[in-house]
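Q: I'm writing up a methods section and want to include an example of the input and output format. Could you take the sequence below and give the corresponding predicted structure tokens, formatted cleanly so I can copy it straight into the document?
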Amino acid sequence: MVGSDKRTDVAVLKIDAEGLPAVKVGNTERLRVGEWVAAIGSPFGFESTVTAGIVSAKSRALPDDSYVPFIQTDVAINPGNSGGPLFNLDGEVVGINSQIYSRSGGYQGLSFAIPIEVAMQVKDDLVKHGCVQRGRIGVSIQAISKDLAESFGPERPMGALVNAVDAGGPAAQAGIKAGDIIISVGGKKIEQSIDLPRLIGEAKPGQTLRLVVFRKRETRDVAVAIGEMPADRIAQTPTRATPAEKPSRLGVAVRPLTPEERKRIDADGVVVEQVDGPAARAGVQPGDVILALNDQAVGSVEQLKKIVEQSKERAALLVQRNGSRIYVPVQLT
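A: Here is the clean output for your methods example:
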């Protein structure tokens, strides 16, 4: 792990290998709504699976996320191909499949990808600075609805409406006030409110940017000296772990079945409480019951550990999920 960035959910890993094939990076500015895209991964452990769909929307804002203008698609994303690449029809990577919106916990036609430019910018900062440097101006904003546009006076709903200004912050010092609508930053238009934190965040602390502000039915230019957003997480190269600190080769935290659970499924096994690493990439989920590994029955936590330790690089898990039993292939670390 070279570093990670919580706000964008992007990490940089260093791999000790040479001569690896590389994908071509695309440009999301040329990506159009309705354009066909494809995801490649191993959903639920089915290796080299391709799913396809179209771009449903761009610059989509999600709750609790103001730094990623997500690409919304209807490409099927499930555990095992999330975190994988989103390709355009020219074979260029335009995004990293990140998450889905679902009421059932499974794919329901709404998936979201991190634009590749966002990921590459995070990568550059983590490698160069050890953390992601983001600018700030000290404002709280909201989207412009049609009703608000009629109240404040712009010709159409666009820009970011300032509803609060930090006292003593860069925006306050530049004269920006609550009720202002920021409609461009550094010559780039703010079509949606989510565009503002992204553009300000991309600016380097100490840089001066020209903002165009709509106030009292007139536009005016404002020069703002960009401040610095505190880093969420400092990138670091961890020291070699001691044996006690090494993660499980399988990547699951499990517990024994209760007597009631054992009676209900009529089998022995262990229940998955938490999952990451190899098991997560293969599609193992919390709540799965591991019945066997490499055709060896698993009756206890210690038995699972012993079988994992004796296994080679690949393992076949027999799990019970929602009343059905399936084999899940796992590439062990």
